[in-house]
Structures
1.
Amino acid sequence: MEKPIKFAMLGSGTVGTGVIKVLQENAREIAKRIGAPLELKKVLVRDLDRKRPHLEGLALTDRIEDILEDDEISVVVEVMGGIHPAREYMLRAMEAGKSVVTANKDVVAQFGKEMFDMSEKRNVDFLFEASVGGGIPIITPLKQCLTANKITEVMGIVNGTTNYMLTKMTECGAEYDAVLKEAQEKGYAEANPSADVDGLDAARKAAILASLAFNTRVQLDDVSVEGITKITPTDIEYASTLGYAVKLLAVGKDSPEKGVDVRVHPVFLPKSHPLASVNGVFNAIFVRGNAIGEAMFYGPGAGSLPTASAVVSDVIDAARDIVHEAFGRIRCTCYGQKKLCPLDDTESSYYVRLLVDDKPGVLGMIATAFGKEGVSLKSVVQTKRSVANHAEIVAITHTVEHRKILNALRILEGLPVVDEIRNMIRVENDRG
Ligand code: NAP
Ligand code: HSE
């Protein structure tokens, strides 16, 4: 056996605690797999006076220099979260010749290039498996196991909080506000739930997934984002009746004609699609490649031990590279400079729910308004939801460019028989 590989950890909250547990429980197997024992030498904390029973026996410091200047430490694990000072600490660690492992999607999504540039300059590893999908292996599969493919689509349920909320709304017919409160009580949603419910957390993960899948740098600002706040139990009921599940999806597509299209929004997804049956806090990522066909990666997208599973696996990977002196084997894979598809040019089917006057000829006027903009309707349903001479109509369109559906909605808004456009949601992977 080689001498121990020593690492340091920045932060010791939910994920950091999991890392310590995994190391304690699996130390012997991990040592055999690396060919050397793994030793957590120092932990960076903010406040040395705070009691931390889970860190008993470990060397704590509140000075990053104690870690950066320690030549015995060859790997730094960043599980503090946030952008500053996490970004600077990781850059400084790599500059000092240490490999870096992180779970931090914020930094990877916004500063991925800078991180990779530094890792290449100093010939060290920069690994971030836990940044998307928590414990689900997806970064390594995209960078290594699927690298023989041309990937044309990567689609995922990458936010557990919103998937839990949509699942509850579907199962119980509950209102958005009630399920949000429940998600907060269970500790899934933060007191300020915006990053989850407005889609920003998923957008960061979408940028990372698309960059890896399509070998081109996709920045957070390139992702068009819509959250789940506009979803009502009525939309979910219609979806179910029409054969769909409602999901918040991170969607990435790459086509030679349109370019790279990356977005996060709620969708109607056919119940037969593998992602439609991913419920509760679980995550899943669906990949389409020209050799593998379709593949789906499913599992716990967050949580102390599942996320630590990914973090510790990256540490083992970095440690193996140290043992075999093989650093930086898999470098930045964003070598392409593909054009991005503007939102207006993206294509999808749409669900449109309207409140209209309940009188003869109205359906014809609506179909004409859609037709004027080249929007072809796949189905139109009018249900029992009629109130005082008004009727609720739901239309599902065939695939159409986003700009055309927006133009059609503008025309519809101007029709005297249209009282209200109640919702518009994309229908993804509809083969009809
Ligand atoms: P957390 O529970 O809030 O823990 C963060 C820890 O970092 C705390 O112990 C905090 O110290 C410490 N910290 C923050 N700033 C620091 C600083 N400047 N110096 C020293 N220590 C500092 O967060 P977490 O849930 O473990 O998440 C960590 C990272 O993993 C984030 O990037 C997150 O997005 C990612 N992640 C988390 C999950 C999950 O399930 N939780 C899943 C996937 C990815 P104090 O105790 O003093 O506040
Ligand atoms: N807030 C995220 C979620 C977990 O709800 O899935 C951390 O990425």
Note: Residues 159-161, 196, 201, 301-302 surround L-homoserine (ligand 2) (CB under 6 Å).
2.
Amino acid sequence: MVVGVCGGIAAYKVVEVVSRLKKLGAEVHVIMTESAQEFVGELTFRTMSQNPVATDMFGTPARWEVEHVSLAQKADLFLVAPATANTLAKMAYGIADNMLLTTYLATRAPVLIAPAMNKNMYTHPVTVENMKKLSDGGCNFVRAGEGFLACGDVGIGRMAEPAEIVDAAVNLIACEKDLAGKRVLVTAGATQEAIDPVRFITNHSSGKMGVAIARAAKLRGAEVVLVHGKSSLPAPYGVEAVCVGSAQEMCDAVLSRAPKCDIIVKAAAVADYAPESVSTQTIKKSDADLSIALKRNPDILESLGKNKLAGQVLVGFCMETQDLLANAQKKLEKKNCDLMVANSLTEPGAGFGCDTNTVTILKKNGEKLTPENMSKEALAHIILSEAVKCK
Ligand code: CTP
């Protein structure tokens, strides 16, 4: 991966970008413009990347022959961060008067740009036009955010945070994009059924499995919506997140989006019952016992199964404490699913809150697949690969 650093105060944050990329196992080569070196020393990036830093076209080649061509060819991704208005303009017009710009012109790798500049420069029509030109030409952007700018202004122009830039980089190159053009809806986590303004009925689902599936689908190029319960983890980069409380809210969020989705994965643990009425005030204790009447919630997966569109793939999850496979098979049929992922609650390294999982995947055609215990991330890819085969 090649990281081109321009002259902006945000250059210091790119040190963290390089550090995070290294931790993910990437080989990183840094190119610095002359003005970038005014903000951060070449030694910092050399130490962090564990590679020589290219600073100009006529310096002594450290390891490579014709530097810019060599770097351009070896790149899987060319990241420009922080991208200044000056460099963006030169990139848009093919000006190649430094090492970063010649490498940009010579590479055929995907390009990711993280701009950073003063808000008036960022919103200037010329800069906007240059970014549009680059975007139309296939460059990808991690948009600048709003906040305090180094110049003292408050507004748009802050470089995206290092974690977001790295997520965007990984999303561009990590996986084969076999889900490009597909819409995937994933549900994750536990629903909450209110009893009164402070109490609710819920379950132990952490949402990790559903979030892993949403992340894997995004990495594979899908447009992803994650409908998640309140206690689940932050949504992965680039995924549209819809936070819901009750099963009824999840039902509304899912059924309104379902007709546009190619694959729907119902990993959420949905409450089957909700209090018949929700007290508007906190329930006060008395010496008598208390009973709460419960009413049935809608079965979201069953509705999806009844209204399944041609070519749509429906994946259910099933968590049981007994007769796992027999119950999973019944649910697969009753809810008209293509796959049912039977989740063991009794196996070590599986179930609520774990980072790993042990499952059996039951298919509509009667086949069963039992992957070994593995991380929820790895399992997410297996489930999606099976879903793709159902089409
Ligand atoms: N599900 C749903 N709506 C519900 C209940 C469950 O969409 N009201 C979905 C879950 O998201 C999961 C699948 O149905 O994908 C199976 O859920 P599970 O709780 O295992 O089974 P239930 O159908 O609720 O049956 P039971 O509680 O009797 O085991």
Note: Confidence is low (pLDDT under 50) at residues 61-65.
